[in-house]
Amino acid sequence: MSKNVAEIMVDALQKAGAKRVYGIPGDTINHFTTAVAKSDLRWIGVRHEEVGAFAAGGESYMTGELSICAGTCGPGSLHFVNGIYESHRNGAPVVLIASDVARTESGFNFPQEVDQKKIYEQHSHFCEYISHPSQARRIVTKAAQAALTKKGVAVVIVNGDMFTETDDDAMDWEVYRPQPVCRPSDAEMAELAALVDGADKVSVYAGIGARDAREEIMAFCEKVKAPMVHTTRAKEFLEPNNPYNVGVNGILGNKAGVEALEDADLVITLGCDFAYTQYYPEAKKIVQIDIDPTHLGRRSAINLGLVGDAKTTFAALTPLVAPKTDDSHLQAQRKQWGEDLKGYDNEGEESDPTLIHPQFVANMLDGKADDDAIFVSDVGTAMVWMLRHLKANGKRRFLNSLLHGTMASGMPQAIGAKLAYPERQVIAMCGDGGLTMLMGDLLTLVQEDIPLKLVVFHNNTLGFVEMEQRVEGLVDHYTTLHNPDFAKLAEACGFAGWHVEKADALEPAMDAWLQHDGPALLDVHVNQMELVMPPKIEASQVASTALFGVKAVLDGRTREVVDLLKNNFLR
């Protein structure tokens, strides 16, 4: 019995493991949405397609399974672009069904016609048209396989009239998900082991590519007395219950994480593609191990580049190296890591009941959130407070836009995470700038009955941008935001909201917010004059901030300079 292309596609997506489709219906996908309505797939109607792509990416990042977006013609499909780019860079297996005008009008600049392939092939692993109804299952299956095995986005482009074409669908195409193991050759492993044996102080710098290798890394670190530094994306996987962990490198990192790399004779980067070259150790031996050979040496000069998956390679390496007895390098960085953690706790203390520092909010949230909570943050300062002040325990999950660095990803990605794990507490840590960019989809929480928890760090500014301008010695421009009372906004949308302006009112409001059954928003006015302090403060940074002070005073903004000093340097 023949089926139309829309029905074949929906069946293929379900067999590939998809459970939800995010999008907005429209003329060129009406037959597709009809097929979805007759299936077990759940349609999640969003108010902006970008939210749909973020949400699909949030779901797929958390589960490792397929999710779907569907857009109608040029305008609808184009709205997905930023969220699709974010999902692709995050490694989330998402399939976008990008519809186009009818084939009879294609090529004549028909209204809403767009060359979807030119747009999407630059940020997808697979991007193809269904050119004949007999290709429908084959193309969709190959798209799903590319998304799942290569970890990213695949795009299927369909002309609107193609959905109604029929086929007997006789060929049973399937998705295959092989899991090969890979490590360097014996000769390369021997060379690596010799480098380890020849170094007095070894440090490991592990990234998201080493997410499955925590036990193997710890065994290696124990044998050679090495501290482990991790990237921000690897926090949830490598930090918990790891006695060799000393934190994070980079501008968002901590002193021990920076010094563990600077002080080592040999640094082994494992599954790590950290982009900022200024934070790699200078004039030291660096070995890079990555599953992708094109990543070798692209961030920093290295002494040895090897291809292998982290788990298999480190399991093979540890028996080859001689044990070390001098643990002074490890203990020095562990001591500093303890001091770094105390510093984060101290930053969260609030002695002034009329003022709320954002670290105070984050520390309280860390203590009150569930042990298996899922946290998703916007970029900017909200991301910093998550990464520095929320503890990873092996059960909690974390998601930030660390590779694409896009505003407004927090709330939408948290929607996808909550739909994937309805029984778990999911918390979106939102900046006021990020939330207001896609604020219309607060209505989606009510319409789709999604009991998400949102906390808004309400500082009336694009905080991270303002900080960047000030640290460069500039007077900040165009960063001020005029915001509503977000709690009242939540209530107007149909769900619960709390508004807090003083520190002594935060705890009861946070308790009520977390215990509320449905979607809920906690609007917290936090200190606007908050700098994100780097792990090491260079003289140039102090000089630049001082230069801002001089310029601000000359500009008649003396009060701001006083507040900046009081709230960051005189605490």
UniProtKB/TrEMBL annotation:
Database matches in SUPFAM superfamilies: DHS-like NAD/FAD-binding domain, Thiamin diphosphate-binding fold (THDP-binding)
Residues in Thiamine pyrophosphate enzyme TPP-binding domain copies: 378-524
Key words, A-Z: Pyruvate, Thiamine pyrophosphate, Ubiquinone
A Pfam cross-reference name: TPP_enzyme_M
InterPro entries from the UniProt entry: DHS-like_NAD/FAD-binding_dom, POXB-like, THDP-binding, Thiamin_PyroP_enz_cen_dom, Thiamin_PyroP_enz_TPP-bd_dom, TPP-bd_CS, TPP_enzyme_TPP-bd, TPP_POXB-like
GO molecular function terms attached to this record: catalytic activity; magnesium ion binding; thiamine pyrophosphate binding
Residue intervals of the Thiamine pyrophosphate enzyme central domain: 190-317
Domain Thiamine pyrophosphate enzyme N-terminal TPP-binding: 4-119
A single BP term in Gene Ontology: carboxylic acid metabolic process
Family per record: Belongs to the TPP enzyme family.
Official protein name in the record: Ubiquinone-dependent pyruvate dehydrogenase
Species of provenance: Altericroceibacterium endophyticum
Lineage of producing organism: Bacteria, Pseudomonadati, Pseudomonadota, Alphaproteobacteria, Sphingomonadales
